[in-house]
Design a protein that fits this description.
globular; alpha/beta; 14 strands
Length: 464
C-alpha cells in the first residue's frame, strides 16, 4: 500500500510537470486513438517550444482523461484486430497515461463491457498471461532477465564492442529451417550488448555496456545458429511492429482480408529480430525488408551468434551500389541488410528511385550509439536522412521511432526538450497536414526505458 501511494503521488507530479507524457491532448488534437495507444497529438506548424504540448489543466483532468479513454474505446472495435500476424505483437502494447490527478476515476476507463482497472505497476501480483502460444511471452522472459548469461562471443570495431551472452531456455520446439535437422537441436536465449572500448582494449564482461536485444536461436553442433523467426521475446520490437501495422490499418492501407505488398525499412539491426519476424510473418511475395547497420561488430555478432541469416547481408561498396541493388530486387531476396549509414542509403535511394514506386510503407528507427543516444544525423530536420525519407514514404505510411526515455521524461536519448525536438523533426518530415503523432510505452515488467513514438503520414481522417 505504501508503494502504491508513493507511485500514485509520483504520477500526479509527473502529470503536472511532463507535457510530452500528458494524456490530455493539446488544443486542436484528436483525443481518439487505437486500442493500446495513448492520445494522438497534433503539432502546430511552428518551432518546438515548451508550449507545443501544453500541461494538463489544473482542474478537469479526470473528465479529459475519461473523454480520451472513451474515444479510444470507440476506435477499438475498428483497429483491435489487424490479422493473425498482429495478434501476438499487439498483445504487447501497454498504454501508460499520466492522468492520475483524478484519483480512482482517472485510473479506470470505461469500455463497452464495463469498468476496467488500469494498472501502472503490478506490485506483488504476477503479470497476466496474454497469449499462451507466444514463445516470447511474459512468462518466459525472466529466463534471460534474471542473472548473468554465459559468454558466447565478442566482436570489436571502431565503434566499440558487441558482446553476446547465452541463457538457457525452458521451452524447446526443435525449430530448424527446412524441417527436421540431423542431430540434436537445442534452443537458447542470446543477448546482445554494446560497450565502449577501454584503454587496454580488453573484451568487456557480459554485464557491461548497454543491452540491445534478445533473440531465441536454435543451435546444433557444426552449424551456424539459426534465429527462431516467430519469436520476439522483448516487448519493444513487438510494440514497434504493432504500432506500424495498426497505424497502417487505421489509415486504411492494411486491410485484414487481403494483405497488400509492404516495403519496410529498419534502421539499426541489433540482433535482427524485427526484420526476421516481419519477413517470416507476412505471406511470401508480400513483403520486402531493408535493414541498415553501420557497425561491423554488430553485423558480425548478429550473423555468427544471433542467428541472423548471412544470406541477407548485401556487402555493397557504397550507398549508390546499395540503392541500385535494392531497387533492382536484390537478387530476389525479400530480406536484405546493407552495411550502409541510413542517411547515405536514403539519399542515394532518393536519387535512384526518383519518380518511381520504390517507397516504404513502414519505417522503424531503432538506432543508438554506445551511450544510448540516437545519432543526431537521423533526427536533424535539415539533414539528409529526414529530407530523403520524406520523399520515400507511401501516402499512408507509418513511422515508428524508439527512444530510451525513463518514467521521469529523461533518459539516454535526452531530456524533455531534446525528445520534443526529435519528435517534432520526424513529424514535420514524414507527416502531411493531417498526419498524426502519438506515443506508446512498452510493458513495464519487460522494459522500463523504451518510449516509442508513432507517426501516421496521412492520419486517420474520417476514421476518427
Amino acid at each position: 500500500q505504501v508503494l502504491k501511494l508513493r507511485a500514485r503521488t509520483a504520477f500526479r507530479r509527473l502529470a503536472r510537470a511532463r507535457p510530452l507524457m500528458s494524456s490530455v491532448p493539446a488544443a486542436g488534437a484528436s483525443a481518439a486513438g487505437p486500442s493500446g495507444a495513448s492520445a494522438f497529438l497534433s503539432f502546430a506548424p511552428s518551432a518546438p517550444t515548451a508550449q507545443t504540448l501544453p500541461r494538463s489543466p489544473a482542474s478537469g483532468g479526470s473528465a479529459s482523461a475519461s473523454a480520451a479513454a472513451a474515444a479510444a474505446s470507440s476506435d477499438a472495435g475498428r483497429g483491435s484486430a489487424t490479422g493473425a500476424a498482429l495478434t501476438s505483437a499487439a498483445s504487447a502494447v501497454v498504454l501508460v497515461a499520466f492522468a492520475a490527478r483524478g484519483g480512482k476515476r482517472a485510473r479506470r476507463r470505461r469500455t463497452a463491457g464495463g469498468r476496467v482497472e488500469r494498472h501502472f505497476f503490478n506490485f506483488g501480483t504476477p503479470e497476466p498471461e496474454v497469449d499462451a502460444n507466444d514463445p516470447g511471452r511474459v512468462g518466459v522472459v525472466k529466463e534471460f532477465q534474471n542473472g548473468s548469461g554465459d559468454f558466447v562471443t565478442a566482436s570489436r570495431s571502431d565503434f566499440g564492442w558487441a558482446v553476446v551472452s547465452e541463457h538457457a531456455a525452458s521451452e524447446q520446439d526443435g525449430y530448424w529451417p527446412g524441417g527436421a535437422a540431423e542431430g540434436e537441436v537445442k534452443q537458447v536465449w542470446r543477448e546482445l550488448r554494446l560497450a565502449k572500448a577501454t584503454e587496454d582494449d580488453r573484451p568487456p564482461s557480459v554485464n557491461e555496456g548497454t543491452g540491445q536485444t534478445v533473440v531465441k536461436v536454435s543451435v546444433k553442433d557444426g552449424e551456424t545458429p539459426v534465429q527462431v523467426p516467430y519469436c520476439m521475446p522483448l516487448a519493444y520490437p513487438k510494440t514497434m511492429c504493432a504500432i506500424a501495422m495498426a497505424g497502417q490499418h487505421l489509415q486504411g492501407a492494411l486491410p485484414l482480408d487481403d494483405v497488400p505488398f509492404q516495403r519496410c525499412l529498419v534502421v539499426g539491426l541489433g540482433g535482427g529480430s524485427m526484420p526476421v519476424w516481419l519477413n517470416h510473418t507476412f505471406p511470401d511475395g508480400r513483403i520486402v525488408v531493408d535493414a541498415l547497420e553501420i557497425d561491423p561488430a554488430v553485423i558480425e555478432a548478429a550473423t555468427s551468434a544471433m542467428g541472423f541469416p548471412s544470406a541477407a547481408v548485401r556487402p555493397m561498396a557504397d550507398a549508390t551500389a546499395a540503392a541500385e541493388d535494392a531497387v533492382s530486387g536484390a537478387g530476389g531476396e525479400s530480406l536484405r541488410m546493407y552495411p550502409i549509414a541510413g542517411e547515405a542509403f536514403l539519399e542515394a535511394l532518393g536519387e535512384k528511385a526518383a519518380g518511381g514506386d520504390y517507397k516504404y510503407d513502414m519505417v522503424f528507427i531503432d538506432a543508438f550509439d554506445k551511450a544510448g543516444r540516437v545519432p543526431p544525423v537521423l533526427v536533424d530536420p535539415d539533414g539528409p536522412f529526414l529530407k530523403a525519407l520524406s520523399t520515400l514514404l507511401t501516402p499512408k505510411a507509418a513511422v515508428v521511432m524508439n527512444l530510451l526515455v525513463g518514467m521521469t521524461g529523461s533518459g539516454s536519448s535526452g531530456g524533455p526538450k531534446e525528445i520534443e525536438a526529435m519528435v517534432y523533426a520526424v513529424h514535420q518530415a514524414c507527416c502531411s497536414s493531417s498526419g498524426e503523432a502519438f506515443t506508446v510505452r512498452t510493458p513495464m515488467n519487460e522494459s522500463s526505458g523504451n518510449q516509442l513514438y508513432g507517426f501516421l503520414t496521412a492520419g486517420r481522417g474520417g476514421r476518427r
